[in-house]
Amino acid sequence: MKKLTKKAENLLLLIWVQAFLALAGSLFYSEVMNYVPCELCWYQRILMYPLVLIYGVAAIKKDISFALPGLFMSGIGLLVSTYHYLVQHVSIFQEVGGACSGSVPCNVIYVNYFGFISIPFMAGVAFLIIFVLHLLILREQGRKA
User: Where does the sequence pass through the membrane?
Assistant: First the structure.
């Protein structure tokens, strides 16, 4: 285990904050606003929620190697979010999006801030931030070696 630089520690904490905010945001929309998550939303939650624990433990232990699964989960989450966003906003994908097996079709748009920011967009940005910051930590640690 390599000791993290102060910059890497701060980035790791920032990743944890981002994952926590994404978790809190998704719970706000489902529990406070009563928006029922669709099937693709559940997949994104399955990929995001553990990141709070993974990066939290990594930050406490100051060991980025513990968080390696988070890199893969955030990358996969970014792909799922991108697909979900396309299902909501691109006509070719919208026809497919209604085929979600849950009680809520995946092409339902609960929020649409500024005409393009939907829940999958916000999730995708969160996954992207986590993924990029994790790569920056790995790069920072590589420089230190």
Answer: 9-28, 43-62, 69-86, 115-137
